[in-house]
Design brief:
The structure is a homodimer. Helix content of chain A is about 40%, strand content about 15%. Chain A is elongated and about 75 Å long. In chain A, about 55% of the residues are buried. By secondary structure, chain A is α/β, with parallel strands linked by helices. The first copy, chain A, has helices at about 5-10, 15-20, 30-40, 70-85, 100-110, 135-140, 165-175, 190-205, 225-240, 250-265, 280-285, 300-315, and strands spanning about 60-65, 90-95, 115-120, 145-150, 155-160, 185, 215-220, 245-250, 275-280, 290-295, 320-325, 325-330. Chain A has three domains: about 5-50, 434 Repressor (Amino-terminal Domain) (Orthogonal Bundle), CATH 1.10.260; about 60-160 and about 300-325, 3-Layer(aba) Sandwich (Rossmann fold); about 165-295, Response regulator (Rossmann fold), CATH 3.40.50.2300. Chains A and B meet through α4, β2, α10 and α11 of A and α4, β2, α10 and α11 of B.
């Protein structure tokens, strides 16, 4: 017996069931009765329903991320935890790693805790093969699920995202408009957001009538902290004769490796090589020159995600998706006439 | 009624009370009876005692850190959470910030959850004014408290630390032995570990008969992420005529600022300025040249802290302090004949 079953049996929407369970005043007494009758009839109260039924709950929300020590995810966890705390919720943190099976079991374990909701931080929870997202669908049948930077159409799943496609598309278009036609797109994740960024790059090439070459889309398989590995990887491409006058990277770490590569090869930045990273993290100010980077306004995203979460738990109707825009912050590695987002 | 009261009333040690409460088999039946009688007599069972009394617990451990998005603390939270999870414990995360009052209320709130133990990650929880550590003493009267990189003598408090004093002393001594007598010590925290590092620097100067000048110990008050602010700060000192041929920093972020400063002023690294950071973080490989840094083996510290925590919760006797050594990892910003830790 989950929220879908109740909705079906009672002949009301899932949102209405949620409102009843959360004790919202905006429910007709007759509707409330109908829902409660179904719940009573089946005599089953999953943990997450305890709250609405007046039972003791921990006021806890689960945060699952792949790796809380990753620069970007660490910020996300920090912002989400702070906003939850201000709203009187504890956060139970679990790092799931990046493997599908581990993500699935992390979510199952979290559901078995008495959490009121679960937040999946980072786009790597959604895969293109929708069968592999079934575990999230199953979780959402029990408690509301909130996705940071991932997109999924499913009842009781709420997405707060940056439009990574558009931000990357604009940055690539700005590079092309500045005269660079051989942009190396460097990425290290097949996550939802990773693929959207890649598509943004491809779209900009199509829009500007530039052939998208497979050679210019390079996937870096090394560790997420091995900046020197990225540098070696690019030196290898250079030695193989691949020519590129810009590196558009899906992450600042990759961009930092590109800056190191240019220095090692004596290539002038931004004169002979423009570099753009993603996330506008601390790494961008550490490099020399500082790295131009797309800022996806993580603090704003996290604040909104928690607002949505609290509203849903209070039984309010909330839109399933909220989308923000990214913004290219120009620093020392580009000299573009306008920022991508001003185009 | 807390663990001290029970220990006193029952006439047994705190460790014994802990063993009884945790259901350890290594307790004489008569002793167990004595302890249980005291608990029964007062009819009071704090949350954390529930476990030993066979009541339902959440198997949760609280982690409190100042800021989980800080590079170093993010790693600490990640390692601790992973180790706790492997041992079947959830982690409830709270970021307290750096203010005394906020730290105190974060700990109080955490105690009010049904956590079995609390971990304070980061040395900023311990201050030199022992009155200000009373809140930890009070917490330890209720549940075991585990400190990462901080030192406190108190029953039911367990410390896992790196010897920051010795590591900094060795690094400073190695710089002096290489011929640098004007080492600028740059720090940004008055935490326990921050002060131990400062003392290590001072001690090395004393050992090598070098006068410790107040001007050469500079406290940076800016944001913990403002590398450019550190750069400006050092430029200011330079303009005031302060002379220094090495920067020994209490954190990699400060060292990254020093590298930027040297570049801006055209000072050769490591020829005319040696730079040493602390934590051996990602920032060290991002800078050019890469930054020599003291590695305090955070992963090992965190694994040990969790081992101690699980053992204590299982009613085993554990030493109140475990201390590891740090190690200077030489990269591009120093050219010292031997690493500090090999001295």
């Amino acid at each position: 017996m989950n929220i879908y079953d109740i909705s079906k049996q009672a002949g009301v929407s899932i949102a209405t069931v949620s409102r009843v369970l959360n004790g919202s005043p905006n429910v007709k007494p007759s509707t409330r009765r109908k829902v409660m009758e179904v719940i009573d009839r089946y005599g089953y109260t999953p943990n997450a329903f305890a709250r609405g039924l007046g039972l003791d709950t921990m006021n806890s929300i689960g945060i699952i991320c792949a790796d809380s020590s990753d620069l970007y995810l660490a910020k996300a966890v920090y912002y989400i935890e702070g906003n939850l705390r201000k709203n009187g919720y504890n956060c139970i943190l679990t790092c799931s790693g990046y493997e599908h099976g581990d993500k699935e079991s992390a979510l199952t374990l979290m559901i078995n805790q008495r959490v009121d909701a679960v937040i999946l931080a980072g786009s790597n929870y959604i895969e293109t093969d929708t069968d592999r997202n079934l575990y999230i669908r199953n979780a959402a049948a029990q408690i509301p699920v909130f996705l940071l930077n991932a997109d999924m159409d499913c009842p009781n799943v709420f997405c707060t995202m940056c439009d990574d496609f558009k931000a990357t598309q604009e940055a690539a278009a700005a590079l092309i408009d500045s005269g660079v036609t051989d942009i190396l797109y460097l990425y290290n994740s097949h996550s939802y957001s990773g693929l959207r960024k890649l598509e943004g790059y491809q779209s900009a090439c199509h829009m500007r009538n530039i052939a998208v070459s497979g050679e210019l889309m390079q996937f870096y398989e090394g560790s997420r902290e091995d900046i020197d590995g990225v540098c070696r990887f690019l030196c290898g491409l250079h030695e193989q004769g691949l020519s590129f006058h810009a590196v558009l990277a899906s992450e600042d770490m990759l961009a930092a490796g590109a800056v190191k590569y240019a220095k090692l090869q004596g290539i002038d930045i931004p004169g002979d090589l423009a570099v753009i990273g993603y996330n506008n993290s601390l790494l961008t100010t550490c490099s020399d020159p500082e790295i131009s980077s797309i800022d996806n306004h993580l603090e704003t995203l996290c604040a909104q995600l928690v607002r949505t979460c609290i509203s849903v738990l209070n039984g309010e109707d909330m839109p399933p998706k909220v989308i923000y825009s990214g913004e290219l912050i120009q620093k020392g590695t580009t000299r573009l006439p306008v920022s991508g987002s001003q185009k």
